[in-house]
Design goal:
2 copies of one chain form a homodimer. Chain A has 263 residues and is α+β, with helices and mostly antiparallel strands. Helices cover 29% and strands 26% of the residues of chain A. Chain A contains 8 helices and 11 strands. In chain A, the strands form 3 sheets. In chain A, strands 1, 2, 3, 4, 5, 6 and 7 form a 7-stranded mixed beta sheet that branches. The termini of chain A are far apart. The interface between A and B is large, with 47 and 47 residues. Chain A binds a DNA duplex (27 and 27 nucleotides) through helix 8 and strand 10.
DNA sequence: CTAATAGTGTCTATAAGACACTATATA
DNA sequence: TATATAGTGTCTTATAGACACTATTAG
């Protein structure tokens, strides 16, 4: 009556062809950095700006055939291997693309709308990563420069973007904005010790708000439970001004994700 | 030299077998409801509790063979079809499982760790849904009762759960907690008009906090920009007490997702 | 001295929390 | 009358924001 005696045998005889399966499972990464700029917008001196790294798809693929969405700008990414998660694939691809590991990487969405990729049923896991500018500049210099570039957000949205990457980038920015205000990811854009105005400029680069720009920000910083001034009161820096500035650091917490609601 | 002249031809000849592809793409749903209870925990009278609907996997499958993870309790779900997104599949499955549509449904994670399903490389999209108790009771009564049940969260974690559903349920609860405090999903657990104490009990069922339990909650409610008392001052209800209580409703907003930070 | 960045002091309005109090119904 | 839920008043303390002010350096 029953063909198989137990679960083991059933698994050995399991045939996934009973179901229609996807044609591809991929990970894409919106790689962000913050660069120094000189800009004055109605009395406020903007010193840092958020940028995204995009790659230009080749016109021809490895076999010399016309490439899908060739010539358009796209998020770096690639196919997930069966022995890894989408998150691990993103980590691997980030390392391949920029040579860095150990930086902030976060999954924020799945893009699986039928027809999003003309090659078939291809599912993309979207991640955003925060990489110090230094690493990206090395990467871009190493390349022949034409096909990897850093863009401001405005510039990126004026490009001809591949697939549904416009929507993915929009969501990536929404996520990074929210995380900047509700968690302590801001630290990923800063060196291990930083001045109040450096933190202020990083926040303003991603999310402009009067309360962040105001002088009051200096007082607020002293009351935040996850930021402390470096112990020795004489440790200061003059890298941003003639008057030496106090240095602060983020206190490591178990619960990084819910630092929340502070800025 | 080049086999194909243009992108069209390349797509027509695209062969997904160049890459290893997943063996299955599924959607699972943590279906939550809030039921009335009578319980007293150190001076605070708990009147509502969060519950989750789980199904017990059959011992034998449709062909009479031993079923994978048979006998264990699991989240309802199923395979995504190639003409729909994971979200649409979840909507369809929710409707098949409970007969309801138009309720709150949200994607919150992807589970794709190799080995999570012994049948192969199977990716699950996790969603949570909020369904009024009434519908679930109908569903459970219609079934032969043994294989669909409502559990409190504590009860659920004491069951033998299939696959990685323990981890999925844990994350579902984290997400619903956060959303209850930062958005106005609370309304999904309430009827269209409600009393202050009903809202209070719904919030307490998901996230206990002194400030919610306190009398001050009554004053707070009047200042929330997304809640209003129903227009006619005489419209009251006695369903919870002898003294008639004022009825309130949620004001519909475009930006439901960022009602944020109010409770 | 000036210019530039780094901070502080002070005032006001509002919100959060503790907790005692009053109100309206039924039985 | 007692009891249960509904709701208010008052006080204290903490915080947010506006905005004017002082501090420290280089040149």
């Amino acid at each position: 009556m029953s063909k198989y005696q137990n679960e083991e045998e059933v698994i050995l005889n399991y045939n996934s062809n009973k179901y229609i399966t996807p044609d591809g499972y991929t990970s894409d990464i919106a790689i962000f950095t913050i660069t120094n700029v000189e800009e004055e917008i109605n009395n406020y001196k903007k010193k840092k700006a958020l940028k995204i790294m995009l790659i230009q798809r080749a016109e021809l693929d490895a076999e010399g055939e016309p490439n899908i969405e060739g010539g358009k700008w796209a998020l770096p990414g690639g196919f997930v291997q069966p022995n890894e998660t989408a998150y691990e694939a993103a980590k691997r691809e980030l390392s391949e693309e920029t040579g860095v590991s150990g930086v902030h990487l976060k999954h924020f969405g799945v893009y699986d709308k039928p027809g999003r990729d003309r090659r078939g049923w291809i599912i993309s896991n979207a991640h955003y990563a925060i990489v110090p500018e230094f690493h990206l500049e090395k990467r871009i210099a190493a390349d022949d420069a034409a096909e990897v570039e850093l863009f401001t957000i405005d510039e990126a949205f004026n490009l001809d973007l591949a697939f549904d990457h416009r929507a993915i980038i929009t969501e990536a920015i929404n996520n990074i904005k929210r995380d900047m205000l509700q968690t302590n990811v801001a630290k990923e854009f800063l060196s291990s010790v930083f001045t109040v105005s450096e933190l202020q400029q990083v926040l303003l680069a991603v999310y402009y708000h009067k309360s962040i720009e105001s002088d009051n920000f200096f007082k607020k910083i002293k009351n935040l439970p996850f930021i402390e001034r470096v112990s020795n009161k004489d440790i200061k820096t003059q890298r941003n001004s003639k008057r030496p500035a106090t240095l602060y650091r983020f206190i490591e917490e178990e619960d990084n994700e819910i630092a929340s609601k502070y800025f």
